[in-house]
Design brief:
It is a single chain. With 679 residues, the protein is mainly alpha-helical. It has one domain. The protein is 85% helix and 0% strand. The protein contains 20 helices and no strands. Helix 6 runs antiparallel to helix 13 and helix 14 packs antiparallel against helix 19. The two termini are 35 Å apart. The relative contact order is 0.13. About 1% of the residues have low confidence.
Amino acid sequence: MPTYLTPLAGFLGLCLSAYLFFSIKKQSAGGGLAERISVKIQKGAMVFMKREFILIALFSVILGTALFLFQDKSFSGPQSIAFFMGCLASSAAGFIGMKTATLANVRTTVAANETGAAKALKIAFSGGAVMGLTVAAMGLIGLGSLFWIYTGNQHLPEILEGFAMGASLVALFYRVGGGIFTKAADVGTDLVGKLEEGIPEDDPRNPGVIADNVGDNVGDVAGMGSDIFESYCGAQIATIAIAASTSAAAVTYGAASDEILLQFPLILTTVGILCSVLGIVLVNLFADKNPALALRTGTIGAAALFVAATFGLTSLLDLPHTLAAAVLCGSLGGVLIGLITEYYTGGRPIRNIAAQGQTGVATLIICGLSVGLQSVVLPVLTIAATLYCSYEFAGLYGVGLAAIGMLGTVGITMAIDAYGPIADNAGGIAQMAEMGEETRKITDSLDVVGNTTAAIGKGFAIGAAGLAALALITAFIQKTGISLDLATPDSLRYFFVGLLIGGAVPFYNGSLTMDAVGKAAGQMIEEIRRQFREEPGILKGTVEPDSNRCIDIATKAATRAMIGPALLAVGTPLVVGFGFEWIAPEGAQAGAKTLAGTLIGALLGCVFLALFMSNAGGAWDNAKKHVEEGNFGGKGSETHAGCVVGDTVGDPLKDTSGPSMNILINVMAIVSLVIAGLL
C-alpha cells in the first residue's frame, strides 16, 4: 500500500470530524439560562487548558532540547521534530475533543427538552465521535507523515519513538492534571452540597457545580482522549520497532519483505478508522430504538469489521493468516475486558454494595473493596491469554499486533467513552436550568448508559495501555540486546532489583495523586462553606454563587500537584538506567537489565492497581445510582447517605489515581525505549 494513504486517511477522518463538529454547532443551544450555564463551563475549561498548555510547553522544550543534544546525531534532529509533532498532535486532539464536548452538552439538553431522547442521543454521541475520530486521525496524520517522509531511513523506529514520547508527555498532563481537577471539584461539591446542606446534585446554588461540570470535560474527555492517543501511537510504534529487529522477520516464514512488516501496523490502523466510521453510522441507525443497544452494536460491529478486514489484508498482501489471528486475539481481549468491567461496575456486585449500605458506611466500603479486588482477576487472565495466544501465532511481533487489534477501532471506542461525560453534563445543565422532570428523566437515562460506557472505556483503556506498554518493553529488550537467562542468577540480580523498584513506583504514584485530590478537595470544601456562610442569599437562591473562585482553586491545585507524578514517570527510567550503569561493574548492560526489571514490575503494579481502583470506584458510583432509583430507601435515606460517602471515596480512585497508572507505565516504557541506544 502506498505510504501516503495513511496520512491521507487521517486527513479525511479529520474532515469528517470537522463536519460533525459544525453539525453539532448548528443545533439549538436554547439561548436562555441553559446556554449561559454552558458558556460558564466552556470558559472554565479554557482556564484549565491554558494553564496546561503553559506547563506542557515548558516541559516539551526541556525534553525536546535534551533529545537533540544527547541522542545519536544521526537521528537526533528528526527525532526531536517528531517529539514536538507528537506534543502538538496529542494537544490538538484533546483540545478539539474538549471544545466539542462543551458545545454538545447544552445542545443535548435542549434536544432532550424539545425533541426527545433519540435526538439527544445523536447529538451527545456525535460529540463523542468528534473526539474519537480526531484521536485516530491525528495519530494517522502524525505517524503516517513521518513514515512516508523517512521510509528507507535505518533510524525510522527511533524517529517514530520521538512522536510517541511527545504524545505521552501531553497525556501525562491532560489525564493526571484533569483527573485531579475533576475529582477535587466533584468531592468538594458533593460533601458540602449533598451531605452538609442537603441540596441535590447539580444544584445551581452550589458554588462548586460549574467546576464539577468543567472537570467532566477536562478529565474525562481531553484526559481520556490523550490517554488512548498515547496507547494508540505507542502500540503502532512498538510493533514497527519489533519488526525492525532482525529476529522479528522470522514470523513471516519468508512470506513478505521487511518493508511490509514495518508498514503493516499503519495499514491496519488506516483500515481501522474506516471501520470506526461504519460503527458510528451503525450507532446512528439504531439510536431511535435503544441507546444501550445502539452503542453496543456500533462497538462490536466496528470490531468485527476490523477483524474481517485484517484477514482480507493478510491474503491481499501475501502475509500468513497467523498475523491476522494475533490481531483477533487483541480485539477479542478488548471486548472481553469491557464486558467484565461492565459486569463489576453495573451488574449484581453494585446491588450487593448498595444492600450493604443498609448496615452502615463501613460495610458498604468493605464490600466495595472486595468487589474491586475481585474485579482484577478476570481482566488480568484475559490479558495473559491474549499475550500467550498472540505470541503463539506470531511471536513478539504478534504481541504488538494484539495491542493494535485492541486499539485499531479507537475512533468508535473513544466516541462511546466521550459520550458519557457529555450526557452527564447535559443532565447537570438540565438540573441547573430547571427544565423539568421529563427533561431530567431523558438526560438521566442517557447518563445511566454513559456511566456504563465510561466504565467499559476505563477497562478498555487499562487493557490497551497494558498491551501497548508490554509491546514497548519488548522492543526495549530487543533494542538493548540484553539476556534475561534464568540459568545465570548473577546476571539476573539486576533484573530482580529492578522488579522490586518498578513494583513500588505505581504505589507511590497513587499516593501522590490521591493526596493531591484530598488536599485540593479540602480547599474546595472550605471555599464552598465560606460562600454559604458569608452570603446566606446563595442558599435562598437570591444571590449567584462565585463559581470562578472554585474553578481557580481546582486549576491551581491540579497544575501544581501533577508536577510530582510527571517527574516520577519521566525520571524513574533515567535514574535507574543510568544510575546502575554508573555504579555496577557490568556498566551499560547492568543499567539495561535493571531498567527492564523496573518496567516489568511497574507494568504489573500499574495494571493491577488501575483495575482495582477504577472498578471499585465505578461500583461505588453505580451503587449510589441504584439507591437513587428508589431501591433500599431511595434518595434521602441512611443507605443513600452511606452510598454518597462510598462514591466520594471512589471518585479519586476511578477518575484520578486509576487512570494515571495507564499514563505512568506508557511514559516509563517510551522513555526507556528512547534511551535504549544509550544503554
